[in-house]
Amino acid sequence: MRNIVNFLLVLLMIAACGSQTNDPIILNIQLDEAISGETINLLKATEQGLLIIDSAKLIDGKAHFLVSATQTDFYRLDLFSRKAINLILGKEDQEVSVITSIGGLKPVLIEGSRETLLIMSMDSTSLKRQSDTQLLNQEAIQARSAGDIATLNAIIQQFNYLNQRHENNLMELIKMAAPSLAGIYGMNYIDLENNFIFADSIASIYQEMLPGHILSRDLLSKVNALRSLSPGVEAPEIALPDVDGNVFALSSLKGKYVLIDFWAAWCGPCRKENPNVVKLYQKYRNENFEILGVSLDRTKQAWLKAIADDGLQWKHVSDLKYFNSAAADAYQITAIPQTFLIDPQGKILIKGLRGPTLEAKLKELFNY
After folding, report:
1. What is the mean pLDDT of residues 94-107?
2. What are the chain's domains?
3. Cis bond leading into 231, ω under 30°?
4. Is this model's pTM higher than 0.85 or not?
């Protein structure tokens, strides 16, 4: 990783010393396959989202664009809906070449765009993290099923170490890239809630250096929206009907560690995770620990049946309003399962714990 960072630093220094031009950027596309007649679309990030700004026909696997860039912007090549390639192009770029293939796993080669090289490094780091953690998650599931606690604990430690190492590598790349758009691109790979101090510091850089750019404004908006849900702040109140129709408040659990579990009977991944949560609840329920299940179901019948079928013995609430739930709005829930761990003072500790990461955190809190 150090070699990659050093290499990218050299690229940034070279680009900073290069001359700038107002001439259009020549964007060359070359496929390994000699395909003709298919259309490649060039899209650009705008206030309305990614919009097609130009198209070109492939002739013997080659196509060309002339891109007028008055500022650095985010672009995407759509290769006839079979492959997408992200680019960042700016006034300092003169000729950019993209060499790729449609079939196989051959990596994309980019020449002439320093910021695109940066985002490719971020993509590579993120993919490596996904590969590592998915493999360890499968190993953890097997160890848990076999009752091999020693192996499970070792896997959890390795999982946490690798995940943090990859996260740190990404944050180093982002810091090096700021205030270029590549830094904003990399922020999509960072858990903003659990790295809020870092995210806030990066957003401040872009607020100062690129205040008017659409991607800067988007990052600032995300960070500002998360201030109410960042670690260390008071958890928003939840006061919804329980299974008996009586209003139950999250604040009534103050003094305990509380896992807020957003789920639903219709949510396959939620139901798959439930046996793990049941096991952890049985282990720590006599400690200073409680779970509050917040269902995004639409019908009470489905909600109650799932509670019974999965053996969920903790407290449950729901207003049966799907993602329009007041609790989902307060916690900015756009997908489930989702969890928030709250400390005894009612403040948010961490978000998004599941499987091995949830198990590791509870083990850390309760020392077994």
Report:
1. 88
2. 10-112 (2.60.40.180), 119-229 (no CATH), 239-366 (3.40.30.10)
3. no
4. no
